[in-house]
Amino acid sequence: MDQSVGPGHAAALAVTVMVIGGLVPLVRLRPGRWVTVASWMLALLLISNEIAYQIVQWRGGLGEPYVAHTWTLEFSLPLYICDVAAFVGGVALITRRPILVEITWFWGLAGTLQALLTPDHPIFFPSYDWLEFYLDHIGVLLAAGWLVIGLSLHPRPRAALRVIAITVTFLLGVGVVDLLTGGDYDYLHAQHPPGLLALFGPWPWYLFGATGVALVSIVILDLPFWPERRRAR
Predict the structure, then answer these.
(1) Could you tell me which of 164, 158, 157, 163 has the C-alpha nearest to residue 228?
(2) Is residue 186 left, alpha or beta, with left meaning phi > 0 and alpha meaning psi from -120 to 50?
(3) Residue 137 · residue 20 · CB < 8 Å
(4) pLDDT of 25-49, one tens digit each?
(5) SS3 sequence, 59-92?
(6) Range list of H helices, 3-80
(7) Helices 33-58 and 7-29, packing angle to 10 deg
(8) 6 phi, psi to nearest 5 deg
(9) What's the whole-model pTM score?
């Protein structure tokens, strides 16, 4: 059975709902020093999880079927949007800089959520691969809700436009890395794209479909804050 949609995946989704549904309202309703401490802990968890995964690959992986690959230039750079969102979200939790909060919010809910629902490879439970993957994705989603809903650090006017511009620039840079390394970071030229991307057909057509969905998703994620901005004006 494909473990990416097996009991391990179902358990991870249940944990996602319980953790986010329990902690985010608590941050909003019970503010205090504990929120700062917990923010630092979540930030360190997100960043250390990414670094640890790099180390595991560098040391040769753990063998089949868990993180079988060793570190390679065309596969292992932390250039997938979910990886970058983990670093950005970690720094955002500590600094609370508006632009980092906005990237975490839009990338987390428009990108990481999709990856959580439809993993791009079989993930065997229990394994380090399972733990690393879901710590990354659940952590980014928790950080997004923690910052924007729990701490009320809402995206600013034109936040959607800024994040779209940053995303396009980032993916153009990743495309250059793909050409130089022969990799396929962020699935920019996958013949058989994973997850929901497969619904849009083969390369290059799924790029157009994914772009459209991403733009619509970012606008939808920005909609809840429009009334607040109108009142502020």
Answers:
(1) 157
(2) left
(3) no
(4) 999 999 999 999 999 999 999 999 9
(5) CCCCCCCCCCCCCCCCCCCCCCHHHHHHHHHHHH
(6) 7-29, 33-58
(7) 150
(8) -95, -160
(9) 0.92
